[in-house]
Design brief:
The complex is a heterodimer. Chain A is mainly alpha-helical. Chain A contains four helices and two strands. By secondary structure, chain B is of the alpha+beta class. Chain B has a four-stranded antiparallel sheet, sandwiched between helices. Classes of the chains: A mainly alpha, B alpha+beta.
Chain lengths: 91, 152
């Protein structure tokens, strides 16, 4: 009798191992697709130089796109994930 | 039911020896494992799989259970690609990944009955398995050498 092999999910003896060789787990993918609500604005620091020294500024659009491109190139993100996240990068 | 292992063994002759069956029988008597089913397959040179009759009936289902779990009558590659967000991410395998063309293999489904209470205990305390693998034979030798001789 001919047999067409099925694709079966890999799992461990004690359960699903959630780390898939550097790729997002389903939980991580869900979190990436459902970002939490924006945090309320923080009060401005008394000393503006603290912000500059602390490096807490938001990365630029170019930096975010570069990071996404790196994740795509290294196989962490699929093309579809890359395109979806790319649309979220603020202009 | 305990975790079920899929063991794929390449064979020159499509049969388990009496020695292997005797050991599986002993392990079952000890409540350690249970041989659920055995399926013998031949992969043709063109890549297609054929099920073969077992030389001896090793399990009551005679490979039918294993064939139902490991195979299907259609190519699933298209449906897998459209199956929601999570499923395509999960690492998968099939007999086609394991059995080279032009060879024969015995595929055993082995229930690890000893592991069910351990798995349940891990789940009860919220434990998350992060890795499961086997030590390489060389590392097992190293481990043996480091273990005290009176260790059980």
């Amino acid at each position: 009798m001919l047999l067409v092999p099925r694709q079966l999910r890999r799992t461990g003896m004690t359960g699903n191992v959630p780390y898939y060789g550097g790729r997002f787990t389903p939980a991580q993918a869900y979190a990436a697709a459902h970002p939490r609500a924006e945090r309320p604005p923080q009060p401005a620091p008394a000393d503006a130089s603290v912000v500059a020294a602390g490096g807490g500024s938001r990365p630029s659009r170019a930096e975010q796109l570069e990071a996404l491109t790196h994740l795509l190139g290294s196989g962490v993100l699929t093309e579809a994930e890359y395109q979806e996240l790319r649309t979220r990068v603020a202009p | 039911m305990g975790p079920v292992q899929v063991l794929v063994i390449g064979l020159d002759q499509p049969e388990f020896t009496g020695e292997v069956l005797a050991e599986l029988s002993r392990l079952r008597s000890a409540g350690i494992v249970r041989l659920v089913d055995v399926l013998v397959v031949a992969r043709r040179d063109d890549g297609a799989f054929e099920t073969l009759a077992e030389p001896t009936a090793m399990t009551p289902s005679r490979g039918q259970l294993a064939a139902a779990v490991l195979g299907s009558g259609e190519d699933e590659s298209a449906s897998m690609a459209e199956d929601g967000l999570d499923r395509p991410r999960l690492p998968t395998w099939s007999l086609a990944d394991s059995v080279p063309a032009g060879t024969t293999a015995a595929v055993a489904l082995i229930e690890h009955t000893w592991a069910a209470p351990l798995r349940d205990a891990i789940n009860r305390v919220g434990g998350v398995p992060l890795e499961e693998t086997w030590l390489a034979p060389d590392d097992v030798v190293l481990l043996e050498q480091m273990m005290p001789h009176d260790a059980p």
